[in-house]
Structure prediction request, 156 residues.
Amino acid sequence: MKKLIELDINDEVHELAVRPDASLLNVLRGELGLVGPKKGCDTGGCGCCSVEVDGKVVYSCMVYAASVEGRKIRTVEGIGTADSLHPLQQAFIDAGAVQCGYCTSGMLMAAKQLLETNPSPDDDEIRQAIAGNLCRCTGYSKIVDAIRLAASRMAA
Ligand code: FES
Ligand code: FES
Prediction:
């Protein structure tokens, strides 16, 4: 049986009926059309579904939507716009850190959290921060370059 809940997503409150066992990822993508978070493994192993809940990155495939009622949820759609990209989004483009793009939203969320707590990370710290996010295309080097580039631009 579905339950009526309110979810605060990207500074907008949505009222919707969800099954108690519906994952946040399925609700974001299937009910709200927020398809930035991707469904990869659906078992907490790849990071491409990452979103923020109260500023902390979580795997949305592993979170029940009903459990985050009243919390602040942010998806990749809420970190920048087409006209005003987040510095990380621009840096990923400029550094050529996107190939198929499937991992990109999760990488951006992990990198955003890193730079909010550590504005000048070294490469080891960057690699550690994205260790929970799998990329099958880039070999990670350009992603690390992009995060370093964004950090330098944000510090300037
Ligand atoms: S889809 Fe959620 S961790 Fe892989
Ligand atoms: S760009 Fe394809 S999985 Fe990372």
Observations:
- The first helix runs from residue 24 to 31.
- Residues 39-42, 44-49, 59, 61 surround FE2/S2 (inorganic) cluster (ligand 1) (CB under 6 Å).
- The longest strand covers residues 3-9.
- The chain has two domains: 3-78, 87-155.
